[in-house]
Amino acid sequence: SSPTSTTNTLGKKSSPSSATATTTTTTTTTTTTTIGSIKDIHNIFPGDLYPFLRKPLFLIIDSNNSIAFQNMPNLFGQPFVSLLSPIKLPTVFHDYQNKGSLFTLFLTSPIFAFCFVCHLNDLTNEQWNLCQEHINKIIFEITKLFLKSKLVVKKNYLFFFFFDSTIYHFFVDEFLRLFLSRFVFCYAVLRLHRAFKGSGFYPSSQPQLSNDLLENVQIHKMILELSALLNVRQLFLEGPLTTADLISSNQ
């Protein structure tokens, strides 16, 4: 017997082959949508974290889409700080992405991170100790910058005044204080490095830290001195960023 023809939605007769093709196309589209939905349910969205804002929250987001968490609303008025990774990476470092994150490396081992961006794979013990000592001094200097110069003693207690009251809540914790100081170090190194050009290559935070911290001339000088000691000075800018440089880069 001959094949039975089918009728499409326009009332015209169509052959069995065309009807089969239409069915196949519809099935493929449905499958693609389902796969996309499955991927979405395994992602973390800013809204997933809203319940945790009922209590003080210190958040570190390391993702190539960290910008999605940049303006999280503080729904309950509790202290909230987030450190966000850069969303871009220079091409020269793309091959290393599957081995770990540069942002996490700066927060956990700033010495290794500095050596990595400077392509220093073979250091002598003397160079390593020199690098470690110098970076420790930079981190200590950054920690001091988080505090205002004025200290107040009242009833045998020493009070520190911070740039932001939210930062103060977490800065008194030694563990979190280290993350904050290393975050500033990360920003300063990438800011001076010639391979990292543009705001997308630098980490960000909420609340945003002041330029007194992020663009501090003294910190820049110490980083450039370290690069000179390790013979990688050519990888960095000619000198500390001036006010004119900052205005130009932000335009």
From TrEMBL:
Q: Which domain of life is it from?
A: Eukaryota
Q: Name one GO molecular function term.
A: transcription corepressor activity
Q: Which Pfam families match?
A: SCAI
Disordered: where is this region? Answer: 1-26
User: InterPro entries given for it?
Assistant: SCAI
Example GO biological process term? DNA-templated transcription
Q: Where is this chain compositionally biased, Polar residues type?
A: 1-18
Name of the protein in question: Uncharacterized protein
